[in-house]
Amino acid sequence: MSDLDDFRAETRAWLEANCPQSRRGAFRGFSTFNYWGGRKAVFQDEDQQLWFERMRDKGWTVPEWPVEYGGAGLDKARANILQQEMRRIQAQSPLQSLGIWMLGPALLHFGTPEQKAEHLPKIARGEIRWAQGYSEPGAGSDLASLSTKGELKDGQWVVNGSKIWTTNGDKCDMIFTLVRTEPDAPKHQGISFILIDMDQPGVTTKPIKLINGDDPFVQTFFDNATAPADQVVGPRGKGWDVTKYLLGHEREMIGSSMTNSVTETVSSVAKAKLGADGLKADPGLRIAIAQHEMESWILGIAVERLKDMGKAKQFSQFSPSVLKLMGTELNYRRGELLMSIGGFEAINDLMSEPVHSYLHAPANCIAGGSNEVQLNILSKRALGLPEL
Amino acid sequence: MSDLDDFRAETRAWLEANCPQSRRGAFRGFSTFNYWGGRKAVFQDEDQQLWFERMRDKGWTVPEWPVEYGGAGLDKARANILQQEMRRIQAQSPLQSLGIWMLGPALLHFGTPEQKAEHLPKIARGEIRWAQGYSEPGAGSDLASLSTKGELKDGQWVVNGSKIWTTNGDKCDMIFTLVRTEPDAPKHQGISFILIDMDQPGVTTKPIKLINGDDPFVQTFFDNATAPADQVVGPRGKGWDVTKYLLGHEREMIGSSMTNSVTETVSSVAKAKLGADGLKADPGLRIAIAQHEMESWILGIAVERLKDMGKAKQFSQFSPSVLKLMGTELNYRRGELLMSIGGFEAINDLMSEPVHSYLHAPANCIAGGSNEVQLNILSKRALGLPEL
Amino acid sequence: MPLVLTEDEVMLVDAARGFLTKSAPVSALRALRDSGDTLRYTPSVWGEMAENGFIAPHVPEAEGGLGMGYAAAGLIAEQMGHTLAPTPFLSAAIAAELVVQVGSAEQKADLLPKIIAGNLIVGFAFEEGLRHNPAGTAVTFKDGKVSGTKKIVLDGVGAKLLIVVAATDAGPGLFLVDPSAAGVTVRPLDLIDSRNAADVDFADTPATPLGEVGAAKAAIARTLDVARALLAAELLGIADEAFDRTVAYLKERVQFGRPIGSFQALQHRAARLYARLDLTRGAVLKALRALDEGDKAATMLCSLSKGAMSKLAYDVMVEATHMHGGIGVTDELDIGLFYKRVRVASELFGDAHFHTDRIATQAFGI
Amino acid sequence: MPLVLTEDEVMLVDAARGFLTKSAPVSALRALRDSGDTLRYTPSVWGEMAENGFIAPHVPEAEGGLGMGYAAAGLIAEQMGHTLAPTPFLSAAIAAELVVQVGSAEQKADLLPKIIAGNLIVGFAFEEGLRHNPAGTAVTFKDGKVSGTKKIVLDGVGAKLLIVVAATDAGPGLFLVDPSAAGVTVRPLDLIDSRNAADVDFADTPATPLGEVGAAKAAIARTLDVARALLAAELLGIADEAFDRTVAYLKERVQFGRPIGSFQALQHRAARLYARLDLTRGAVLKALRALDEGDKAATMLCSLSKGAMSKLAYDVMVEATHMHGGIGVTDELDIGLFYKRVRVASELFGDAHFHTDRIATQAFGI
């Protein structure tokens, strides 16, 4: 038996013994069902807490991070085994976190030793919940035109302006932001990536109500908010490089989440709701569902291929844009099909999953760089088509 | 009984008596079945000749043109009645002609009295077959970038250059062309609309073979070709105005011909070829056909509406672009569906109607101003969207 | 009738647009929604609509109506689409149509004036399944009583009368039911477009036949077609309005130093929607004219316009929402209200899938 | 196996590309077509392909083959798509697969070496209707003889052996027929892609069973899936090539004073095709890998890749033809040759409609 086989056996046994039954089962969406950590966090139930703490103590909230930063220092092969074994028993992720998905990779890549030591362990242990602060009301697709301003005064950053689309911003502790710090530099070069504590009078939030009545986003206002001078990730004025690095991460995540975050396939919903006879009576809907499922299947295979390419060190520069573009558009059609299948029931429940997909899908096509931005990236960089 | 009722009764009786049975029946495409006139024309059979000559003598090849130009001088109401009565017995058009559809309207609008007297009667009587000379190898969508050159020397135009996509150019007698006559003027202002006799050594043609093996187009070469000085339609250097006027006509014709020029609906072909059982076994194809038929139906209604608007003097500036765009794209899908329906038979017959539609449809999206040009027209002029 | 508006129709459109813009703008829907009102329409606005002759204008003069035809009703529906006016307009049109088609002389004389005057809200209790299905009914009429459950009865909350489709030994019949009668349970829905609708249960509820049972089947078919044509017209109005607002936003929103409407990719997508709207407009009018003219093709034309507009309005809303960027999905912007109404209006009386299949089978025989 | 190419596979792709570009470029197809040749492939090129090990490389080593798997066969097919190489590659792969699946030891020993060496062209006589239909057969086998008509037998003109699917009392069987035997009429077709195919009539023609009749059904199903996966790979190659040529043209063609590829509307349309090709590439490889691994999902993955690629390749060709402007439809340009081959390859063994329905029924149970 190889070392890896041993690891698999041990992992399987540990998971069997330590993952509470209530934390197993199909992924139920990025809802409150999941634990997001942070200063204000409250556990939903004992099992949630137990599962989180056990995994945290193993360093398995961030298995590949170094042990010194709260991870388990696993290599790729072991991390994959852990993932497979968790999937085998449908173990829920113990901790959802923008810190893990976004800030962490940025810090690991760009951060100073002090920044890593300060922030990474708190992310790994779910002590700080991070928010993302990129977009502004006037700077959407044209993100680099942002105008939130930061000045270095008396050894600290003083920040003024506002950020929009901060996901669950009211529940977060800190925010990683893009701030214009060199007003005279060209627009991509005057931006710094600054970490700001939200627990100060200079930071306030206002919920943004969406068309389905939900308000998962806030607008965050900075009114002479402050941050210590050393809370810039990457060189001052080079925040755009950090952002480009992270946007790649985010696009891939949004695109591939389209294949993971769904609890049920459209066809299984259709069968359950309409039955074979109902579908036979509605061949147009049936074919539309089948076409969607085929596209969804293809997207899933593409994600699998991307992972295999990653393992084979074949870096695919444009795949994040492709996944983001195709995944979000697919989700659009998923929402529409779920509404059609749900019929009179679906239009009567603003908070139902079909309505959520249907009404919320457009936001996915905007967030993380609008699909037009992705198409521009692909046509310019992947195809080399000339500028106008 | 009103005058119009009288006219209808007389027309009906005349058509019944004079339209040979063999010239009745569903439209069979712009094939050689139709009579196109011209110096080189040969009648296919006696009935074709009889029908053409009878209609010509009534002035009914161009019923609304003035009698002095070979028409019948009918008003709109009577022209409509004639059209309805012809349609009632499915009488074939006696004369197909770019002269009637394109040059005629231009001459009626822009021509001098002398030009009208010289050319219109010959068009009406099918004596001269006209070709169209707009596009050039380097000037497609960007028509105004054309480089065929005309100089006025010794009282006549001397023309050099070449035109592409001249429909049946080898069978035509004369060609209306766009020629750059003022090389120093801005590109839209240095063009003249010149009428050139093709029966001269300076004009030669070369067939263009298409991907279905057919060669309905030629490239036309002008090598010191000449035309009398007075054969400019509209002011010298103002040929672009004439063209814009005519392109509107052409687009409308191409768009609405999509609804008229088809001999059979896709659904009737599908029923005949595949039968009810075959279609039931292939719900995707069946639904695709139905969607196409719905779009086709809507296009037909739009053409009807456009005619009604014309009668009500409600000028619709953008409808030609809309019809061209949607009609040609519809035709694309028609070709594809006919290929699917024809299956193994269709891929075995390069000259069959499905293959013709399938392979030829792309050309329609280009001819008469590419669909991108139509989309630009609509976005700029109909929607008022700003220039980049 | 030609596919252009008559002078009278142009005047009607102007009048409706003027009235609705003033008395029932989109902000009124929003206010009504946020007020928690259960009726979900404003009786005073409804009363004014009656005064303006906007309620069921297709009722023939012989029956005491204005005799303005289905086209007039459709044009009003189209204008209501522009402002998302939440009124029992469609229910009134349906009820009036059913009574005209099949009611006895007494029933006509009793009901039509009240409907047209806006004094009697009538709910049409028709659907029973998850999706539109005109094929049959499980609600029964026996010994003068109806039993069973109907879904999504428009304006069913607060309605003073229900017209219920129920099965009899002689086929489907239409029955008048007093919602306050025994055995009726009205269960209000909370539709995403914030309009009035309810599921309704009947348990041995006394019911009176509307006209002869034998005539009901044809009258229901006809009425469904009328409802479809009116919804198609409303969807056209919604799509036009959302599209116009989007084009305006494209001119106004600046990114990368220029209006986003100057980007050709967005221009072409917008131009394509313009072209489709321009085309489909004719089909909507054609269906209404065909109803007015007793054209045999009317029933298929109603499916054509409802099916095509359900698809087109959705496509417009997808682009409208997307082109508005992030704010397109916020409640602050009206676009979301249009999006939600499009969904409901598409679902009612058959969506694009339903009508495509119907046309395939009936019109093309495939 | 992961969804990336192994080193061996990368070498194979390079070798195939090098060979085909040199020995079977698009111009060779054109020359062959214009020559009026009835065989429609070049025997010397076919011989060289045998020498290179490109013919039926999936035949297991145990059966005397190279044992390189279906993925290898698919990668060669993909490269043949790039140059539209007209060879009996697909027929050979199909015949080899059938013999491997079901042939007796003697038949394997006799036939496989000849097929792999390129010395025996075998036509698969399967289709009978207007469109692909694996459901049943009207051709019969009785008393050692087959009778009936088969359609579009690929490489049927000049084939030295036919494998015929015919009905027996024990279900469908596979039968070896000598095309020069009594009662065989080979009627050459003139396919729009200029390849070799024929309709074939059988009238009491002597026939020998290929293996056991009872095993034929599964072998046919398996072979159809292999053929679909190979055609999907070829379609991917064609679509990639036509797309690359179109992108090159977009950079080169100048209108309105600039390359047309600088217009954003065309850029976005091209980028969208790029994205779809990038995604679907994985599904094509996945189907081939699944065949190699004996994955139970293989049959559905073959439908997925064939259905998706049939649709995608068509969409690419529509844009390719359109973006080339007027010359896109001239015979002078190669684009038309790609367009025609896509049509034929899509039609063979089920188009997008067929496979969508198959997947709906079998994979999703809807």
UniProtKB/TrEMBL annotation, chains A, B:
Q: Where is the Acyl-CoA oxidase/dehydrogenase middle domain?
A: 131-223
Give GO MF terms, alphabetically.
flavin adenine dinucleotide binding; oxidoreductase activity, acting on the CH-CH group of donors
Question: Keywords assigned by UniProt?
Answer: FAD, Flavoprotein, Oxidoreductase
Question: Which cofactors are required for activity?
Answer: FAD
Q: Name one Pfam family in it.
A: Acyl-CoA_dh_M
Q: Which family does it belong to?
A: Belongs to the acyl-CoA dehydrogenase family.
Could you identify this protein by its name? Acyl-CoA dehydrogenase
Origin organism lineage: Bacteria, Pseudomonadati, Pseudomonadota, Alphaproteobacteria, Sphingomonadales
UniProtKB/TrEMBL annotation, chains C, D:
Q: Which residues form the Acyl-CoA dehydrogenase/oxidase N-terminal domain?
A: 6-118
Q: Which UniProt keywords apply?
A: FAD, Flavoprotein, Oxidoreductase
Question: Would the keyword Aminoacyl-tRNA synthetase turn up in this protein's UniProt record?
Answer: no
Looking at the record, the residues that make up the Acyl-CoA dehydrogenase/oxidase C-terminal domain are 220-362
GO MF: acyl-CoA dehydrogenase activity; flavin adenine dinucleotide binding
- Supply the InterPro entries for this chain: Acyl-CoA_Oxase/DH_mid-dom_sf (IPR046373), AcylCo_DH-like_C (IPR036250), AcylCo_DH/oxidase_C (IPR009075), AcylCoA_DH/ox_N (IPR013786), AcylCoA_DH/ox_N_sf (IPR037069), AcylCoA_DH/oxidase_NM_dom_sf (IPR009100)
Names of required cofactors: FAD
The entry sums up its family as follows:
Belongs to the acyl-CoA dehydrogenase family.
The protein here is known as: Acyl-CoA dehydrogenase
**Which species?**
Sphingomonas montanisoli
